[in-house]
Each structure stands twice: as structure tokens, then as C-alpha cells.
Amino acid sequence: MAPVSLPYAHCESKLRALAGQAEGFGRLATGGLHGALYCVTTLADDGPGSLREACSKKEPLWIVFEISGEIKLKSFLPVSSYKTIDGRGQWIRITGMGLRLAQCEHVIICNLEFQEGRGHDVDAIQIKPNSKHIWIDRCSLKDYSDGLVDVTRGSTDVTISRCKFGYHDKTILIGANAAHCDDRNIRVTIHHCLFDGSRQRLPRVRFAKVHLYNNYTRYWAIYAVGASVDSEIYSQCNIYEAGRDCNVAFKYIPEKAGDKNAPTAGTIVSEGDLFLGGTQLSSGLQDGNVFHVPGIGSFPILKTRSMDRDTCCR
């Protein structure tokens, strides 16, 4: 493991305090809180001192960066359990491919950029299958061949916070497809994120329970939030601002679940949302109830009048 020589190495306890700041369904994620500090010293795709080497280790690690720059991945980078990838204090951009969180738990990803991933089924961050306790915080993601974040195939207890998603097509997918009924256990929180100029899937949800709050979503092209096959979406105190391409924020997409005989859409409950620029909810608004949000009183939710584009990502 590379030696630690960071300017903030003497503040390690403050560095690790990040692990206690998550909100929502991913709030229990500890990452590498109880592991050693690993310092990435090279921007190479692989080898000693690389991010790939750090993420492959079996033991818990808190991963920081001694250098700034672009890491061009030649293949997906698998992330093992109990890892924190902490880009604070440096500028780190991931290109080429993305991160894959498969059958792992307790992973925190903070302060990274993801851009220009190319290839079939290449996402910036794939969370599948059967991963849990994941927190993605303060990341910037755009321009991948497929999606930016996928949470599918039984993965659950995920929080995505203070991230910027921009100028992309299929942005966030939650729930793989209508045949994967096990995705009913998926729970995701998305808060204080900026969705700026992405076409759709902000997010698109199958089966899962998703809590959206204090996000600023604007200038989508097809729809903002898509609810399909038995999903439950609680949209609370978000701003939706339509552009010239499409003014319908919520779309209900019927699909036939693998264990049902007829197609069903999902349910969206909107509470305290602000709709700007002529935004309409949907022509086929679904009535119904959604899940109870655990611990909702333990974290602050801003009223929309207190929000703007900049405060969403703070």
C-alpha cells in the first residue's frame, strides 16, 4: 500500500466523519470507516498504487488520492465491500468505463467525475446484483453510452446525494426489467441532486421504493420521472422546470410483471413539489399511496421556496 503523504492526513478523523453523514435508505453505509487509509499515487488503470488495486483488496479501506487527473479505464473497475473512494481534496475524473458494484456492501463514493464512458452496457456506476448499503455523494456524471447509475437485480439501501447529472439520455435506472420481480426489495433515496438537460430517467423505476427530495430537475426531453410495474415513488419538495422539448414531468409506463397477468404502472405521490416553466404532472396521474419513509424527521428537507440550482448540490 502506498504511503500517506496528503496535506490533510493529520485530519484523518475528520476525513472519516463523512461516513456518518448519509441520509435516506443508504444512511447505514460505512464504507472503509474501520479500515486502513490507502493512498492512490498513480492515474494508471492498474498496478501498484492504482485505484483498481485499492478497490480489489478484500479488507476495508478508506481510499484517498495523492494526485489529481484523469483515470482512463480499459474495463469495468470492480469495487469490493467496505470501501470508501474519497476524491475530496483532489480532482479525479473517471473515463472510458465505469465502476461495478457487484454483490458487495458498504461502499461510499464521493467527489468523483464520470465522463465519456463508451461501449455496450457501459454505465458510470453499476450497482448489481445483490449489493446493499451504498452511498454516492457529490459526484458529477455525464455522457456515457448507456446509463449513468443503474441500481438493479436485488440491490438495495442506496442513497444518491448532491450529484450533478447532465446532458445524457438514460440517466438513472432503478429495477432491471419487468421479469426481475426480486427488485421489489430495492429502496433508493435521491436528494439534493441537479438534473440538467438530461433526456429521461430522472429516474425510471420498476418495482422499487424511491424517495426523491430537494432535487432540481430541468430541461428534460421525454419525461423526468418514470413509474413502471408496481414502483412506489415519493416526490417531496423538488423543483421541476420544463424546457421547450417536453413539459410533462411524470410518466406512467405500464409493464407486465413476471408474476402478474396484466400490465401495471407505478405510483407517484407528489408533496410540496414546485413546477416551473409550464410543467404538467401527467395526463394519466395515478392515485394511490406509497411507502413510509423511515427516519424522515431525522434529516432536514427544504421547502422549495428555499431552493435554487446551487443549493441543491451543497
Automatic annotation (TrEMBL):
This protein's record includes keyword Transport: no
Write down the PANTHER family for this protein, in alphabetical order.
PECTATE LYASE, PECTATE LYASE 18-RELATED
Listed pathway(s)? Glycan metabolism; pectin degradation; 2-dehydro-3-deoxy-D-gluconate from pectin: step 2/5
Kindly list the cofactors needed. Ca(2+)
Top EC group: lyase
Q: Which family does it belong to?
A: Belongs to the polysaccharide lyase 1 family.
Catalytic activity of the protein: Eliminative cleavage of (1->4)-alpha-D-galacturonan to give oligosaccharides with 4-deoxy-alpha-D-galact-4-enuronosyl groups at their non-reducing ends
Q: Note how many cofactor molecules are bound and how.
A: Binds 1 Ca(2+) ion. Required for its activity.
Query: Which keywords accompany this UniProt record?
Result: Calcium, Lyase, Metal-binding, Signal
Q: What GO terms are given for molecular function?
A: metal ion binding; pectate lyase activity
Q: Where is the Pectate lyase domain?
A: 68-246
Cited InterPro entries: AmbAllergen, Pec_lyase, Pectin_lyas_fold, Pectin_lyase_fold/virulence, PEL
Query: What EC number(s) does the entry state?
Result: 4.2.2.2
**What highest taxon heads this organism's lineage?**
Eukaryota
Q: What is this protein called?
A: Pectate lyase
